[in-house]
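Q: What would this complex look like in 3D?
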Amino acid sequence: EPEVTQTPSHQVTQMGQEVILRCVPISNHLYFYWYRQILGQKVEFLVSFYNNEISEKSEIFDDQFSVERPDGSNFTLKIRSTKLEDSAMYFCASRRTATTNEKLFFGSGTQLSVL
Amino acid sequence: QQQVKQSPQSLIVQKGGISIINCAYENTAFDYFPWYQQFPGKGPALLIAIRPDVSEKKEGRFTISFNKSAKQFSLHIMDSQPGDSATYFCAASSRGFGNEKLTFGTGTRLTIIP
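A: Here is my prediction, written as structure tokens for the whole assembly.
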């Protein structure tokens, strides 16, 4: 089965530093997402992205966050100035279309630790 | 109103038994209800999903039961196996174009004991 690839698997950073989390969605997919999961809590939606634009974002996705698809394969999440509460597992996801029942594929995640 | 409530938080079932996880929602605009399975260190993986025009969907040992009037849905795992030990999340979305975000439940850690 095709996979969404995320790098790095673990990222440790100091509070206030910028981090970029990278994702390679499945090659023929057009809809991209970032979710996060704070340890022991539920998975939360951050942002959806289609046609080089954000289509929806949650209240978590404030001005410190940005997403980009810099080329035809990568999809990145940037956190400009990390806070302690940004520590979480960040999942990238993608799907081919937005039609009913189209499967959403998740990557294995990047564990971000902000010290 | 956007919440999806999931119970129990953890569940221990004997091998061969039936595992049942329940979810409830409030937002009547939700029209797609998937269940995700997550193993430690991995991302959630779609297990089975249902739309509200049917009351039950079965795939192998996994069944979703859906009660639209009660706004509840549940996952049943028949003949539970040790390999089913994982965290299970229910989720919901309203699948209008450009609004495919999933709202997840809080998760159930399932342990199948021999």
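A: To summarize the key features: Chain A touches chain B through 27 residues (CB under 8 Å). The CA atoms of residues 89 and 111 of chain A lie 4 Å apart.
Q: Very helpful, thank you.
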